[in-house]
Amino acid sequence: MFQHLPLIWKNSVRNKRRSILTIVSVAASLCLLGVLGAMYQAMFLSESAPEQALRLIVRNRVSLANPLPVSYQQRIAAVDGVTEVMILQWFGGTYKDPANFFGRMGVEAAKLRRVYPEYKMPDDEFESFLADRTGCVVGRKTANRFGFKVGDRIPLIGDIFPVNLTFTVRSIYDADRDNENLFFHYEYLNESMRAAGSAGRMDSVGTFVLRMARAEDATTIARTVDDMFRNAPRQTKTETERAFELSFLAFLGNVKMFLAVICAAITFTILLVTGNTMAMSVRERTREVGILKTIGFTQEKVLALLVGEALVISLLGGALGLLLARGLVSVLRNAPSTAFDASRVGLSPPIIAICLGTAAAIGLVSSFVPAWSASRRNIIDSLRVTD
What we know:
Blueprint: H1 5-12, H2 16-45, E1 55-60, E2 68-69, H3 72-77, E3 82-90, E4 104-107, H4 112-115, H5 123-131, E5 135-139, H6 140-146, E6 153-156, E7 165-173, E8 182-185, H7 186-195, E9 204-205, E10 207-212, H8 218-228, E11 236-240, H9 241-250, H10 255-283, H11 286-294, H12 299-333, H13 349-375, H14 379-383
Parallel strand pairs: 4-8, 5-7
Antiparallel strand pairs: 1-10, 1-11, 2-9, 3-4, 3-10, 5-8, 6-7
């Protein structure tokens, strides 16, 4: 087989236009397949970071739109295994244009680095943030996106809350993941609500973030917290940070099924395209197959040659598609996150292996039937010239 690789290569590119078009078709399909696979892995298969595994999110059992009383915080903090509890209030709002989306959340500033130790910022800048009630810290990705610098002022027009807030950037934090948020003092929001006469929204929060001493205690602590408020007017739902993130994907519907259907459709379509190409190629070379048999090529060698040509074309298309997918994934990783953290998207070795395996399978399946038929055709039939 290997001694015939030069022959396989020459036959693969003998019809350059057809070969290029087939390779491009496979590349486009495998590119999309690779991007979807990377997104699927980032959404559902990526492991929690060590610091993320130590956090739980407590929210209203009914909906995120229903707040919880601030008074719940002290009771949650008393649970065994909980080392810190911090208010995390989504503000929303609009920065210049509704399309300028990024997280804007009120927190207890003094607890921010204890709950999120992976957020790195200079100590002096963090102290400046603590001292300024209207100060905020911004993730590096968002700061680069909008050109924010320390000392800049960021006005937000309220939508969920009937107040407009203006913040001063006191620090820009760095993190491997989740570096797109803006954090500000929860007290600033609470005081602004009082000044606006919206007392009904004061002293209530959307979520609490609690930090545990051990990740192994997550299930026990979550059950304890929820049982504590089982008979309260506002019941809680406590879940891991990873599960909380996945709950946002659930708003989009059955994302897993959606991605699986698209991948199946892509694979089936490119299988038809490649199969048609190989069938045309084999039909045009009937006499050539007969000559190969005449000079001593066995049926198995003829079959291997024809299938090998399809594998070469498919694998070339797969490799080109993965190069394109790598570029698209890089763009996606730097794009603003919405339903999930886009910074996690990447072409991992398993995704690369799956895509190349799919390309090889497409080449094998699409070529086997016409190649098998041609390899077993009688020599006389193969050499017969039809007018």
